[in-house]
Amino acid sequence: MKWEKLGHIFSPRKDKSWNQSHASVPTVDVIDEAIWRIYYATRDETNRSHISYIEVEAGNPGNIIYEHPEPIMTPGILGRFDDCGVMPSWIITIGNVKYLYYIGWTVRQTIPYHNAIGLAISKDGGKNFERFAAGPLFASTWKEPYFTGTSCVLIEDGVWKNWYMSCTKWEVFNGQPEPFYHIKYAESSDGINWERKGLVAIDYATEAEGGIVRASVLKENEIYKMWYAYRNGYDYRENRKNSYRIGYAESANGVAWTRKDNLVGIDISESGWDSVMICYPCVVVHKGRKYMFYNGNTFGQNGFGYAVLNSE
User: Fold this and answer.
1) Separation between Cα atoms, residue 259 and residue 252, nearest integer Å
2) Taking a C-beta distance cutoff of 8 angstroms, is the pair 9, 62 a contact?
3) Which of 63, 120, 199, 298 is the most exposed place for a label (fewest CB within 10 A)?
4) Residue 127 pLDDT greater than 90, yes or no
């Protein structure tokens, strides 16, 4: 597998209060054969995330056709699970309705933050969304007492399949709490009520590993293929040896996976916007070619770029 990086696409303009930094977790919605809509999370003056989007030429995403001038989702009502920020994670289209799975943020006193998975629904083609409910779909439970985050959702034979990030613990390093999380698997019949059995899809490869996040799954020739981001447990924000890389795994059933990170074919650059970390991949197929959208340094502070798979 060999990915060719084709460059940086988009950074926040910083021209409004809500888009002062970051364009994180690029989430691609294939509108048609000509247009891709890419939802992203951008931060305001107080570091709270909002969701907006751009539209690009399908197959040539360096050509930005449209940039939405406002957020399509803003932080939630005071006291709810998303009152400190919202980030896109995955989008599914059912007829004329779009389901946007998103990450809600709250700030905690003993740890820096807490996340949960929410759902917003659009009935106008993805330009406006309304929250499905005041609360999250994936809250903390006695089986999963910490937080949940990114989702990847596919529908097969009426079964909704979700590969989601699940926190397993917090540990203190140099006086700072650090989260550890990996990717679990859940199923649903309607995309709303999920059966969470605690099935681990992608687990830590070593004791040093501390974060596995943002699955992007395709199914080809009866094989499930997943791209994701992984990092060490500590000192990963600016240390390029410990920071995020993109990994790869395969599965015959979507539940039990074999990690093949050595085959992924993409790494950090020698210099520039993605020279410290690469993270949060989203892979789409267009006319037989795979395109990967991803963030670079500082979790997408400078926006996102893309790569094309040249060989497998």
Assistant:
1) 13
2) yes
3) 63
4) no
